[in-house]
Amino acid sequence: MNYTATIGLEVHVQLKTKSKIFCGCPSRFGAEPNTLVCPVCLGYPGSLPVINEEAIRLTIMTGLMIGSRINDYSKFDRKNYFYPDMPKNYQISQYDKPLCIGGSVDAELEGGNKKIGVTRIHLEEDVGKNMHFENSSGIDFNRAGTPLMEIVSEPEMESPEEALAYLLALKQILLCGNISDCNLEQGNIRCDVNCSVRPAGQKAFGTKIEIKNMNTFKGVLRALKYEIPRQISELEKGGKIMQETRRWSDDAGMTVEMRSKEYAHDYRYFPEPDLMPVVLSHKQVEHWRAELPELPAKRRARLVSQYGLPEYDAGVLVADKAISDYFEEVAKLSGNAKAASNWVMTDMLRCLSEHEMGICQVRVTPKALADLIRLVDGKTLNMPSAREVFAILFEKGGDPNAIVRERGMTQVSDTGALEAMMDKAIVDNPKSVADYKAGKAAALQFLVGQIMRLSKGKANPQLVGEMLKKKME
After folding, report:
1. Which of 100, 378, 400, 467 is spaced 20 to 30 A from 362 at the CA atom?
2. SS3 state of residue 456
3. Is 259 helix (H, G, I), strand (E, B) or coil?
4. Which of 268, 283, 289, 285 is nearest to 177 (CA)?
5. What b-and-e string marks burial along 298-321, b requiring 16 or more CB atoms within 10 Å of the CB?
6. Cα separation of 375 and 402, whole Å?
7. 232, 1 contact by CB (below 8 A)
8. Between β-strands 270-271 and 69-70, what pairing exists: parallel, antiparallel or unpaired?
9. Are 173 and 17 within 8 A, CB to CB?
10. Cα distances (Å, whole numbers) of residue 415 to 39, 275, 387, 409, 443
11. Torsions phi, psi for 278 (to 5 deg)
12. Percentages of the chain per state (helix, strand, coil), in multiples of 5
């Protein structure tokens, strides 16, 4: 029997605010445990929350970017549960009146795009972090109270690959809007996965299994590739899927049962009495709408039409807003968009990966890279020398023109000087000359390489090739 999988995702995103959602404590990763806390985020009796307006704005901006309907009236609720990392033993969240309703995300798949619906976006506070040691456990409450936006998808994904494509597209949108750093290693973006299977053709969904607290996109892919066949196997053996919560063990490569699944009534939601409802005016929402950035899909199409880039190049560049901003500045300053794209996509991205850096940290300014491109276009530098200059720029920064002058790296295009080098190469390599005359094209490249060696890499390889052909023919 054939089965259809149904997948829905609840994506939790830490918002890029300076302070926590209900107090003035810094929202910052990496501080000493329990140093970014106060009576409010520790849940002391008598402390009162005050909403962070920036958290509201970033949530609304996200909704606007994906086409959500913005509720002009929303409220906060208490979600009651008891767990060590929740200092108040309840979480301030949103239940029946969230900030954003509906919307969709375009997931890019091999066979084309798929529009995946979003049910709602609501705002809540993050919890602390349980820390387990060899003989003890502890809790770091620095994260407790960090603004956490939850984006709940419709159950419209049918494969692990669709789920991954949705997550990647959503991350691009969030980065584009400067909503979150989306650093998975720091827990900025996490995910709960809901999946079920049913016989092909059956309209009713199967029993849902939730996989909690996925903190890598690859983990989501691997978990679904395990869980969907597991459920199918259980049904084919005549078993029954029970609604439950499971966790993903990456080391074991399998999902493991945690507990039976809670329902909404288990949390005993009720309106948060210490917070006023959020009432938004049409004017305020439209003001935020006017601040929306250019979305990745639209920018990709513009890079193709405005700069003549291939679709592939444009897709790579818009995957990171900071990268595409950097590219556009280099392209405008250099006047050579394709060269700018090539440098950013190859040398720059390779160096960033090797040094585990972001584009905002590099010493190579857009102007410096543009100047380097112009040196190559003007035949002052050949590509091997240009790459040497780039390596220096990446390590130390500076002006490529000054580096070329100081190191005497100017490309040799003087035909008289090249003629002397050619004569030596021809005399020293008679077999290669004979091979070329016999029709072996590779022999020409060998001779060009010899001249490049003689010139210490400064010769113009294209000019050398043309002159060698004439000389030998």
Report:
1. 378
2. coil
3. strand
4. 289
5. ebbeebeeebebeeebbbbbbbbb
6. 12
7. no
8. unpaired
9. no
10. 78, 80, 24, 17, 21
11. -95, 115
12. 45, 20, 35
Helix (H) and strand (E) counts in the chain: 16, 17
Rg (the chain; Cα; Å): 29
The structural domains of the chain, with segments of one domain joined by +, span 3-286, 294-407, 415-472
Confirm if 90 and 80 have CB atoms less than 8 A apart.
yes
The predicted-structure confidence for 46-104, as pLDDT tens digits, reads as follows 999 999 999 999 999 999 999 999 999 999 999 998 888 999 989 999 999 999 999 99
How many angstroms separate the Cα of 250 from the Cα of each of 60, 190, 196, 256? 35, 15, 20, 11
Structure tokens at 15: 């918002």
CA distance 266 to 243: 14
Exposure of 11 by Cβ count < 10 A (0-12 exposed, 13-18 middle, 19+ buried)? Answer: buried
Query: How long, in residues, is the chain?
Result: 473
76: buried, middle or exposed (CB in 10 Å: 19+, 13-18, 0-12)? buried
Token pair belonging to 209: 């299994």
Which of 263, 215, 267 shows the shortest CA–CA distance to 93? 267
Q: What is the CATH number of domain 415-472?
A: 1.10.10.410
* Structure token digits, residue 250: 């990456």
What contacts 396, CB < 8 A, 6 or more positions away?
Answer: 363
What would the pLDDT profile of 16-35 be if each residue is shown by its tens digit?
999 999 999 999 999 999 99
Residue 430: both structure tokens together:
């008679």
Q: How far apart are the first and last CA of the chain?
A: 71
pLDDT single digits (tens) 176-225: 999 999 998 899 999 999 999 999 999 999 999 999 989 999 999 999 99
Q: Does the model's pTM come out above 0.90?
A: no
Task: With beta carbons less than 8 A apart as the criterion, state whether 292 and 64 touch.
Answer: yes
The strand pairing partners of 19, in sequence order, are 26
